[in-house]
Amino acid sequence: MQTKTGIIKRIVDVVLTVLLMFLMAFQVTGDVLHEWLGIGMTATLILHHILNHKWYRSVFKGKYTPYRIIMTAANTLLLLSIVLTALSGMSMSGHAVPFMYGLINVMTARTLHLAMSYWSFILMGLHIGLHIKAMTAKLPDQGRTVFKVFLTVVSGVGLWLFLKSGIVNYITFQTHFAFLDYATAKWLIILQNLAMLIFFVHTGFVLSEITQKDKDRKYSPKPLIWLCAAVIIGAVLTFALKDNSTDSGFSNASRQISQNTTAAQTEPITATQDSTIVPAAVNDGFILIEGGSFNMGSHDSENWRIADEQLHAVTVSSFYMKSEVQNENSKRS
Which one of 128, 259, 279, 324 has the fewest beta carbons within 10 angstroms of its own beta carbon? Predict the structure, then answer.
């Protein structure tokens, strides 16, 4: 019976990992499937905790070693982040559980869901990594070395992808919109997510190594070398392959405005594309912002799109803006 339970646990763990990969790839699944995968993930996690109910019984029993402290903290934070991810996701649901829409304010739910989903992703990787030492215990020495090299190289690439994707802004609650890449092949997006997950798996694996005593009753710091190597690989890739075009659209827009304003200051202008007549030169601190058209709102496939974000074209006339503006009220005070 114990063997059958162990097999079921492993199957559930694999299912959770696969679901996680697709849940973190919204541009692959789309809105409807994303919601139903989230419901499936929630149900599978409930099953996971039922199968591992003995862990809850032992929380307040026994001695807490450094490894057990880290394991308990990671598990607790993971459970909390998953609960918040599920609640915030259901609060924006338009398909799976629409009756829960608005349970949490939509704008608050967006920010919370984006941050908590990536925290769940990170903590899930740590959780897996903290268990890998037991899974690889039977590997021969040469096999363990190959495994560590694999983890180091792939997790280095994963760290680079993590930094490149701007996820730091998501987990620090700095934005409620995810800037998704729809140009990359879907299978490659899944592999990229897997590489990012492996970085945190590697981190968890190293934590398990340095917080558990070896045969001579000492804690070994040697595994830190592997993690440092992964960080170096990620840092080298970040600086070597830095591409400004992968930044958000806001930086592209700011570069375009900068080019327009520079041209406005150095070249005489008689009329803009929308036939607005402007002076040939401006010497009083104002700069010209060129008019043009752009799409306001969000596309039907946009992450967590709501009804009042209908995509529509907007045309703005050219106008002048003073480069430095002083608040007169603050000046008086």
Answer: 324
CB atoms within 10 A of CB 162: 24
Predicted TM-score (pTM) of this structure = 0.72
Residues 238 and 271 grouped into a single domain: no
Q: Do residues 189 and 28 make contact, with C-beta atoms less than 8 angstroms apart?
A: yes
Is the pLDDT higher at 107 or at 172? Answer: 172
Same domain, 213 and 159: yes
User: pLDDT tens-digit profile of 214-257?
Assistant: 666 676 777 888 889 999 999 999 999 875 444 443 344 444 43
- Domain limits for position 193: 2-246
Phi and psi torsions of 215, nearest 5°: -65, -30
What distance lies between CA 213 and its chain's CA centroid? 34
Quote the pLDDT of residue 259: 45
pLDDT at 258 over 70: no
Whether residue 146 is found in the same domain as residue 258: no
Distant-in-sequence, close-in-space partners of 314: CB < 8 Å, separation ≥ 6: 293, 294, 295, 296
